[in-house]
Structures are given as structure tokens and as C-alpha cells.
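Side project, low priority. Logging it here so it doesn't get lost.
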Amino acid sequence: MNTEETRAVLTICLLAAYADGDKHDREREQIREVAQGLAQDRQVNLPGLYQDVLMRRVQLADVLPKLASDEARQLAYEMAVCVCEADGRTSAQEQAFLAGLREALGQAPAGFAEQADALAAAPLQAAAVALPEAPTADQPAPHPAAVDALPGTAAQRRPGTLPAAEMDRKILHASILNGAIELLPENLSTLAIIPLQMRLVYQIGQSYGYELDSGHIKDLLATLGVGLTSQYLEQAGRKLLGGLLGRAGKGLLGGLGRQAVSSGMSFAATYALGHVANQYYAGGRTLGTQMLRDAYQHVMADGRQLQAQYLPQMQETARGLNAAKILQMVRGG
């Protein structure tokens, strides 16, 4: 795709993100931060596109003519679907936006929206997935000191069903899997990371006797500063700007694939989410909002430092994955 098509696809993603007029101010701020964080591509100027969408200076009809290639038109539709599905539900406004986009494009990839729906509606109760065959580390990742230092967690710790070392391995397992998924070029693969993260939180809570629903888990993620729509936009935006999205089978584990992991997204985010959630439920859910957010940011930094160590495992795991396998994993097959 050329630069003009990339700009058009990103603009449609932002229009999709704001199609739901009920979006919380917190999520709007996270989307703005994503736009700023992806601003390194000056040709695209994503912060400028963000302002155009926010101020309603651009409409869908303005950008559709810029999608000259079939690849760009298909990618725009797929990414818009994933943006609307990222928070696990598609509102009436989002459905109307997607219907208008589908009509304007003249056609839509067969079955894509249905597969995205299946990912978004994946059950939290599904069993933990097994990693494809890959080399394993001799030792689990070190427990982050930032979490150990949280006040009160040792004294208030509830007994869990897993020993501490086994919990650390479980979190590392999920982090490697999501890091591997981020290396893949398909949109559906990127969308799968969020339900797998939510399932990890569910399983951690369950190990301490808490039966959680998706609403509670979304609230916890929001408290930590993890926006679902903004997380998908950031992951997919990095791939799109690097030319990986929409190129299934091309460049896998190449330059952008390595950069996607080393720049600190899915492995580090899953690692931080798992360890902070573990301490939160082990401590009887007594930690305050700011304490949780601070811990999450500190453990994210730990996760970024560990990425290089576990990158070979992520790469090897990615070689055993494809969109069909990931869909089966997320649906609990």
C-alpha cells in the first residue's frame, strides 16, 4: 500500500473507534495517546488524523476514494471490524458504521466479521491453551520487584490453588503466546490478544476463589490504564505503519515482526497484567487505583527488559501458529 492508502486506513480505524458516541473519556484519552505514540511516521501524521476525526473535519465519504487497491479496501474493513469488536461488544452505532462501510466498499471479506464476533465472544471459562512446540527456558521469569514491594500484599495474601512458581510460569506462558501472536500479520491474530489476556485474569482470580465476569475484568484493565480499543489500535497501528498487516505469509518474523515485540507491546503488557492481577487477587482486592496503575507501569518496564530474553521462544512459537489455530485456542477448542 502507498502512504495515501495507509492514511485512509488509519483514518477509518479512528472513525470506527469514535463511532460509538458513548465511549468513555478515559478511552478517548488512551486513543489520543496511541496516536501520539505512533507519530514517528511523519508521512502519515497520525496525531493530525486523530484531530481531524475528533473535530469531525473528515467523514467516511472523504477517505474511501483514497483506497485504490483491493488490498487496502479489504484491510480497511477488517481493521474497522476489529476496532469495533476490541472491547468485546459492538454497539448499535458501531454496527451502523460497519454496515455503511461495507455498503460503500461494495463487498466484504466472507466470514471475517463472524470470526471476529467469535473471538470477541470467547468464553472466559475455557481451558488454558498449550503452546505449540518451542524451546523452553530453564527458569521462569523473575518475579517483578515492583509487585513484591506493594504494601500489605504479603500480610493479606489469600491462599491460592497454584504455588508461586507455577503462577509465574503460567503468566510467562501467556506472555510468550501473546508475544508470538503479535508477530503474525493477520488482523484476527491481533484481535485474539485481548480475550487471551482477559482469560488469564479470569484464571488468576479463580485461583484465589473469585468467580469473575467480563465486566469486572474490563473494569480492572481500565483501572490499570489498559484500554481495549486503544490496545488493539496500538498493536495493529504498529504493524500497519511497518507494512506487515495484510501481508499474510510475507515477512513473518522479519524486521517489523521483531520490532513489534521489542517495542514493548503484547509480551510486556500480558506479563504486567498477569503479575499485577496476581497480587491484586492474592491481596483480597484491597489495592487502590493509583497503586495498581503505578505497579502496572513498573512491571511493564520489567516485561520490556525480558523481551529480548524470550524473543527466540516467541519466534519459534509463532512458526507453529496461524489464524485458524488461534481462533480455535481463543474459543476454547
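Brief comment: DSSP finds 17 helices and no strands in the chain.
Revisit when time allows.
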